[in-house]
Write a structure and sequence with these properties.
homodimer; 355 residues; alpha/beta; 7-stranded mixed beta sheet; 14 helices; 13 strands; elongated; DNA-binding
Chain lengths: 355, 355
Amino acid sequence: MSQRPTLADVASAAGVSVSTASLAFSGAGPIADATRQRVLDAAAELGYSGPNPLGRQLRSGRSGIVGVVVGDALRRSFRDPVSVQLLDGLVDTIGPLGLGVLLIPGPTSPGGPAVDPLVEAAAMDVAVMLWGGTLDDPTLEALARRGIPVVVVEGHELSGVVTVGIDDRGGVAELAAHLRDLGHRRVATVTLPFGPERQGGLADLARREQIAWSIPRRRLEGLLDAGVEPVGVYEAPASLVEHGSAAARALLSGPPETRPTAVVAQSDMLAAGVVLGARELGLRVPEDVSVAGFDGLDLPWLAPDTLTTVVQPIAEKGATVGRVIQAVLAGEHPADDVLPVSLRVGTTTTAAPGA
Amino acid sequence: MSQRPTLADVASAAGVSVSTASLAFSGAGPIADATRQRVLDAAAELGYSGPNPLGRQLRSGRSGIVGVVVGDALRRSFRDPVSVQLLDGLVDTIGPLGLGVLLIPGPTSPGGPAVDPLVEAAAMDVAVMLWGGTLDDPTLEALARRGIPVVVVEGHELSGVVTVGIDDRGGVAELAAHLRDLGHRRVATVTLPFGPERQGGLADLARREQIAWSIPRRRLEGLLDAGVEPVGVYEAPASLVEHGSAAARALLSGPPETRPTAVVAQSDMLAAGVVLGARELGLRVPEDVSVAGFDGLDLPWLAPDTLTTVVQPIAEKGATVGRVIQAVLAGEHPADDVLPVSLRVGTTTTAAPGA
DNA sequence: ATGAAAGCGCTAACAA
DNA sequence: TTGTTAGCGCTTTCAT
């Protein structure tokens, strides 16, 4: 037998029909113990290691694959602990369902194709978009054209897709109120990138009107909800420590009279960068400037400090996405889901200087 | 048409045969421009978005899937920037080949099944094992049984699988020689986990003999190659900052006369933790204790310090794995590959105190 | 340049 | 409980 053996080979070796042999492996039907054993023995004899998934998939119309479109190049996405933990929660949930995760890079370079070839051609039963795109996202269009159901994490609430998100706007509002109560009147903010162009730098009012991605917009709105009009808005090109430090240099270099007394960053990585950047400027955290973040990450290298932050249930978000996927594959139409967040006060915020 | 249209539907709508319609999409054969256009028009009309990958895969016997077995739970693996960057390089290389990465969790809990169900049943053309297992790895066995070719990253050199690795032993030897030349005589080391049990803590000579995983073993041997017999060996349960700090507390708490003057960590994350832990103990780095790492990561949160480290070409390693995969799928038998590393001296090492 | 026909490996009605 | 039959959607000889 030069070829790999097939179920037909096993069946004939065991002296049964293919369908019976199939039952021996799937268990999806009545079969005598002795018969099954005979089939399994024949399989072992022939070195047959179970039904070929390709045949099974074509027959069942299911690939068992969940395509996960990460928001960007893997390198960038996975430097963000939030994406990683979410993915982890997702895998934990759908693994036992027999589903696997296919990694699909998001649109990477402006020059390249608008969508990854995998989006157009890979087998998948459902797709998950991390950092869900905008309404006219070409990836979304391609998936819709293929008839692949989509679950969007933290994106716009679109028709035809299920969204799983968090109450980040409310969380930031709570955080802003906390700072306000501490006497802070000059609050600056460091945001996640506004859109795919990832411009970076201080943003004026005009640019603030054009925030394409929903996360930075909602979190900025949270500030305003609490009546905190930021005295400076810095757009980070990515959620990385170094961009937080750069933001600190841009926002905190002025004289004490006009310098912000608090900085709200839209992620913990950025907040940590702000802390480090502020210290490089010779400022004490939190005595001279309070710093707060978002996510609730565990950042051991910031020890002994712990960030004041809005804690989001990342792994649970992943698990929720997993459950939504399960429902979608069962033909249901699950509702959008918004998970709660909570404020956690650490060592990086205190009363405003002179307050 | 309640069902999704198939190629047959498109063909009949265009008034051609299925085989011709197939050619219109694949381009693998002669076809008149006008005919192709007619087929594509019919497809657009019907909302047909290209050949169903499941049918194509069964027919061709290829799934276009590369299964990547990460060494552990995703959460842990992906907290390690090395895994992430490697994966990034891999995806960049195989993406243009039309291949996608299926994430497969490694054995996670001792209680659970020995291998992830995806290893047994998922469609894949080739598998990559990060942190390649030991000789009797059940994952390796399962893949062999299924006849799936395996590429192992940084593992034992086994027969039947292709290995891609780096000259870590030589790199550590070079690093050790550097420290020796700086006058260091009492050198301690912090290793990666010895094996799946991830015991953690100070390791005596007996335990050192039982290092199951090849990376910690080779890097430890590198020290010995340079004539540096470590005065203390601390096994970290994972390559995380906090374990490096714990190692520092365990190794550097003694009096100056016996305290190690240098610590070699087997990863940059661990080294960074050692730096932070040493500072918490009131020690200056590098004046009181020199610290070196391995990997060559960019750690902005350690600024203004930069680690002395052995730089490995991580992304290139991923790209190499990608090329090896390509060769394997082409039916070739590529040779094992060992990539070079280089010593990079940063600000965390200097002459031994009193030397 | 196009069409007819076979079959990749499997599962699921249905019949026995 | 087992066998027969059909067909999932596609690609690919081989004829025409």
